[in-house]
Write a structure and sequence with these properties.
mainly alpha; elongated; 83 residues
């Protein structure tokens, strides 16, 4: 969810602002929030490391940006329907 909100809020500023924001917030989640969640026994990482989680979130962020650029170049838009 965080990547989508970051995308929504930073897309107009360009790729570098988008990626920098993602790196900061994904790193914060992986290296600050996850250890807290592990400490209070909400989550337990067994098969993936914190850096793996951070890398996966950044990989998804990298995929989203060019996909949106492609949609725009094709003239495809998803707008809210008015009811």
């Amino acid at each position: 969810m965080g990547t989508i909100w970051i995308f929504h809020l930073t897309y107009k500023f360009g790729f570098y602002v988008y990626m920098l924001s993602n790196m900061i917030l994904d790193g914060f989640f992986a290296f600050v929030v996850l250890p807290l969640l592990e400490k209070i026994k909400v989550v337990k990482l067994e098969k993936i490391s914190r850096s793996g989680i951070c890398g996966l979130m950044l990989f998804i962020a990298i995929l989203i940006y060019p996909y949106q650029k492609w949609l725009e170049s094709e003239g495809i838009s998803f707008k809210k329907s008015s009811r």
